[in-house]
Amino acid sequence: MSKTFLPSRLIGRGFTYLTAILIVLWILIPIYLITVAAFTPREMIYDFPKELVPKVFSTDTMRFFLGAYKVLESFRNSVIVAIISVVLSITIGAPAGYALARYAFRGKDVYSIAILSTRAFPVVILSIPLAVTFIRWGMYDSVFSVALLHVAMALPTTILVTSSVFLGVSRELEEAAMTLGCSHLQAVLRVVLPLSLPGLAASAIFTFVLSWNEVFAATILTLFNRTLPALLIVQIDQSPIAYRFAGGFFILIPAVVFMFFIRKYLFTLWGITLK
Amino acid sequence: MKKFIGILMLGAILMGLLAACAPKTVIETVEVPVTVEVGVKETEIVEVPAEELDYGLVTFISTQGVPIEEAEAMRGVVLKDFPGQVEFIGSEYENFEDTILAEVQAGSGSLDVLGALYGQYPTLLDAGALQDVGPLMAKLSDRGIPDAVVELGKLGTDTQYYIPWMQATYIAAYNKKALDYIPTGADPEALTWQQFSDWGKNIYEATGDKKLGFPVNGLLHRFLEGYIYPSYTGGMVTTFKSPEAVEMWEFIIDMWQYVNPQSMVYGYMQEPLMADEVWVTWDHTARLIDAFKNQPNDFVAIPAPSGPMGLGYMPVAVGLAIPVTAPNQEGAEELISYMTLPETQISVLREVGFFPAVDVEYPGYIPQGIRMEGEAVALQAAAANAVPAMLPVGLGPRGGEINKVYRDAFDRIVINGEDISTVLAEEAVILQALMDETGAPCWPPDAPSVGACQVK
Is the domain defined by A70-269 classed in CATH 1.10.10.410? Predict the structure, then answer.
């Protein structure tokens, strides 16, 4: 009995690992190739077949790229925009999500759908009116304006994700806290928030990545203070392939680093622990 | 545990902040070599006037000089000696247009000087975004800009809307190693496309390597619109699905047997030339220039080949305009004046590979490679059978769509092997719809039309 059971379990486990390895490779191989190409001397970039472990390294392309006008400045802008977006979308979105999770009110379903519909609206057709409005309000060309638009784009998902996160926190705990002398606000701050921190973090990742990769709003609303994707998308698109790899590498790494630090919470969101 | 998570969160945010601050220190260490290099170049070429003028901040947005190295050369070398602070912003056309239109609608702006292709101005003109620069043009009459080029800047009206800045075109190039295989009787300076293809065939048969190359991932659509179509059909739009066009596509399919398959990823032909992957090719002058500059003894610039209907080629005219909302009017005019100085024009040629719009003598320090490219350009324009093809005009914001029609036709016929007539018939419908919806009349090489251009 156990003789036949064991191999099939082993095969099953082996299959799981194999699938996991394939998925990981599927993601890592392009990243690896981009990284290698970013540090390959320019005249060798078209060499084919590629060596798996490159023998010649060159930082020329990368150095020129990093020294190029405003690349580092726009990198800083991107980080600032992403942080403002994350903070604002959580501060505005979490209370709305809480309301959706805890209170029954007239038109709640319509409200949830209305929130999502703003995301369905194509921002592209707004480009000129949006820029005109920001110019008239004297808010054109600032990182804060870009962050505002990113918040607007991220809010629907933030609200819906946080609302499901708050739903997962038992209401009894909150009520228990209130019977022990907490006000409603205190109960939320001391009991509900700490319990939902992982979910909030995941929603923060989502906003961060959205803001980090967003090009359209960042290009139309800025001139001098561009974010990294806005600055690069045009230049890289029209630049020799060596710079495309350098730019791709440079824009990829911060997102990977951010993910690395926050990945624990992502798994929590996907239902492994939310107790 | 929760505290621990909180601390981790804080850590992540701190990391972000650190990343935000760290570059400041890097910026100095990295920029130093760049400025040093620039300094050396500058002493070689530009005479700095002694006057202490300052025209303040001049914002210069351009659809040309966008690739990272060209933009750096514009900032670090070309614009360096302007008495004032020039903010050069390279921009793709859609964003360029949106930004200008938004500023004009809002009634206040930050852009002072616009740099764009001839065909990119009509939409801005229609929106009332362009100033009359006639008086400035009059002041610059001593620059020696040919009348025909000045006339282009009127955009078909009686008013001068842009000042010619620079020009470019697309040419062919070959590696001297390929000369052993050139078809008998062929003159490299007056090739036909058939000879171009046979050249590739000879190389393939002798060496087993496919050494022709095209920038499929680059400006291939210009090859189709401005070179092969006019050369084989005498037109660009009207002859899109003509019998001559069918023959032309058959020729391309045949030639493609000798084209390096890596062409699918080539954006610029200078790298594959220098990497010895391609021996005979065609591309934009600015995208070949490095090969001629770095190895002038290995590569030769030649006019594009010709076809049964002549030598189709595409001159690219670039102009400078001032938007009605320019905050620094004086600075804008001075910058345009500066850009048309012979020294600046030469410096643009040297750094970016665009040719002067003004009449200049090439000074002795101009590298041989650039000189050679300039000669090929002149030879091409002066060819007796030249068929100049203009960049698509009058399509406004939908200018990119025409390129897609030609590229799609290429992908379907040459790459996917679909039936030529079927593809041309289907793509012609899209092309015609584009013409009808924009109402664009025909432009050269097609004969002028009343109303929207019609595919025959």
Answer: no
